[in-house]
Amino acid sequence: MGSSELLRVGCAFLVLQLIPGTAGWGKDGHYATCKIAEEFLTEEASAAVKSLLPDYADGQLANVCSWPDEIRHSYRWRWTGPLHYIDVPDFVCNYNYCRDCHDPARHKDVCVTGAIYNYTRQLGSTYYDPSPEIKYNLTEALLFLSHFMGDVHQPLHVGFTGDEGGNTIIVRWYHRKANLHHVWDNMIIDSALKTFYASDLSNMIQAIQRNITDGSFNDVPSWGNCTLAELACPDPYASESINLACKFAYKNATPGTTLGDEYFLSRLPIVEKRLAQGGVRLAATLNRIFTPKSSIAQI
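Request: output the structure for the sequence above.
Response:
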């Protein structure tokens, strides 16, 4: 699988070799997204997912959700780099697929939303068809889809071109030097684990799951909906991310700024909600792929 079929209605269709890009949620963030998703899979979808997992996953999707980050810098997989993010024009706080979904060389459809459409299509068209025209590696498709669903919910994965989604904005996180993208990938979650969850990721995940089921988050039943009977609909998720990046990630985080309690405590609810939304929407997407429509229940 040295190249990827990237398709979106209304824009160009290309098969490409790609170059590296930015990273995604840290390992804990991806684990949390996929662990949350596992709780909302239908019986049929759960069985299908487990049938595609590699043996070393021990039957848990969450155990392998960071795989695309682990392999992306090896020679064979360098082409996947730009599939982890979207760069919008500087200071433009909105997203448009045909304008924004391209790699740095401006090859169309090469971005995280394009990848989600692609890998959803691979799973949906091949899993139940024993003789497709094109055979895909469905294990890889599942792992990429699951990972990229997490990435598109990290606000700075739909960030400005000029600062590479916050990667070139150097700040201090309390007493540590970091770039703004890394703060959102890892450091807000790390600080939350130490401050509120006794350094135990399972505690954080359980708290987020309770917020999903007890109504603490608004509009949970609508999170997983797709229009036009599509299996995946990542464009609204990307629009949410750039909106949140402008309102929260970039705000008061200019180069040289020290980010402390005020930034951390006001941004943590955003991070936790995005982890929740990523998990719910990943489950909804996998349920649409692997479950008969009559069997899908609302969260």
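The chain has one domain: 27-289.
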